[in-house]
Amino acid sequence: MAKTKARKSRPRYQEVADALLEQIANDHHPVGTMLPSELGLCQRFSVSRYTVREALRWLGDMGVVSRRQGSGTVVCAREPAAKYVQSLGSLGEFLQYPDDTSLYILSAQGLVADKTLAESLDGKQRRHWFHIEAVRRRSDGLPLCWSSIYVQPKYATVVDWIGKDTSPVHLLIDRHFGQRPAKVEIDMFAGSISTEHAAELEVEEGTPALVIVRRYAETSGKFYEISVIEHPADRYTYSMELERAWGARD
Question: Percent of the chain scored above 90 by pLDDT?
Answer without folding.
Answer: 42
